[in-house]
Amino acid sequence: MQPAQQAVVGQIRLLGRAGVRAASSAAASTSARATVTLPNGKQLDLADGDIKLTMPAEWHPHAGTWMAWPTRFDVWRDRGAPARAAFVEVIKAISQFEPVTVIAHPNIWGEARAALPDNVRVVEMCHDDSWLRDSGPTVVLGEISNCPQPTIRTAVGVDWLFNGWGDLYGSYEQDRLVARKICEVEKLPFVSVDMVLEGGSIHVDGEGTLLTTEECLLNPNRNPDMTKAEIEASLKRFTGVTKVIWLPKGLAFDEDTNGHIDNFACFARPGVVLLAWCDDEDDPQYDISREALEVLSRETDAKGRKLEVIKLPCPPVLTRTQEEWETLDEVGRANRHTGERLAASYVNFYLPNGGVIMPAFGLPEADARAKRVLEAAFPDRRVVAVQTREVVLGGGNVHCITQQAPLLP
Question: Other C-beta atoms within 10 Å of 129: how many?
């Protein structure tokens, strides 16, 4: 699966820290240079103005989707079997709309290959876990100029620095390499950015606006030496946006990710935001959702448009059962507990070509209500619900385990 026809194959590497402190955020965003390695091995040093990166919205046409086969038994109960079954259903649902590639650890590649349909590509690759939204590359559209050739338009992988959600897990060395490995498989140039960021912490509208949360990106366990202005400057540089909208917090109880935006709010289209909503005044989510609504109601997007907000009701409170806790391994049981609230949200959906893959939780009334909201928000797409309780038990959902490969226009 090739995300696009490339004229340049190789690596674009930032020389210097992406968000290094400087006299101003503008200086920080223009101080680095880049090196492009061409197919013939020649390297070109390019100034900031010679490379322009633009992150497409998720509804931009895809060449396909990348996912990863679950591996960690401290995250996935019963040695991962229930989670793998849920992943298979998500993969099957997405493959109705576009090609899917799954990376699998060499030790279990055969198991993944046997479990997945023939139309799904399975690539052997070492990795620590399966949250490819966060460890995989953010594939953007790049324009490279000042080369021996005319201006080159190509897909480019952004390889953010990954630190395991602020060192949440002790082992993530292989996940730190996944983004560049995927780019190598797809023969994509890539930019290595010396700033910690997970893909689930940002959403873009494709027209210059980015959504994120202060709870995550300003958490000292991510980039403690960077200011908010420096982080914002780096976001603008490597995604091509011109405006960043900061929501104070993410979903209540989303403690693993420190409030990723993709579990709380996202763009349905330019100027329209879907927001996880709660009407129970006794629920911590009640105040968080209303605070976010206040921010969104007074903001405009990069084009100057007032934002329309669609409320997407959260499911009823879901908690971890005794059996779900007992079937984790010893490390997992030490980090989880029976009765803990799950960070369940219907916002954590994915947009393959022509479709919406939404999480469902075995709650007929709530699941159906969420599906109706999504069908109204995406009238030209087919909404497919997949039961993903086993995924949310691991700390995420459909959007967290997927990574799109956009096509060049």
Answer: 26
| pTM of the complete model | 0.90
Dihedral pair phi/psi, residue 287, rounded to 5°:
-70, -35
Residues with a catalytic annotation lie at 400
Query: 354 Cβ partners below 8 Å, 6+ apart?
Result: 97, 380, 381, 382
Domains with residue ranges and CATH for the chain: 12-405 (3.75.10.10)
**Residue at 368: amino acid letter:** A
pLDDT in tens, 336-385: 999 999 999 999 999 999 999 999 999 999 999 999 999 999 999 999 99
Nearest to 379 by CA among 314, 313, 310, 276: 310
Q: d(Cα 112, Cα 37) in Å, to the nearest integer?
A: 34
Close Cβ partners of 396 (under 8 Å, ≥ 6 residues apart): 131, 133, 200, 256, 257, 263, 343, 348
The angle at the Cα of 214, spanning 210 to 215, to the nearest 5 degrees, equals 130
pLDDT tens digits, 243-286: 999 999 999 999 999 999 999 999 999 999 999 999 999 999 99
User: Which stretches of 108-243 are DSSP H helices?
Assistant: 109-115, 132-135, 164-167, 175-185, 214-217, 228-239
**Residue position matching structure tokens 């090609």:** 99
Phi, psi of 247 (to 5 degrees): -90, 145
Cα gap 101→349, rounded to integer Å: 18
3-state SS, residue 389: helix
User: Rounded to whole angstroms, how far apart are CA atoms 342 and 320?
Assistant: 7
> How many degrees, rounded to 5, is the angle at CA 192 between CA 47 and CA 246?
90
> Locate tokens 């030496």: which residue?
225
How many Å apart are CA 120 and CA 98, to the nearest integer? 10
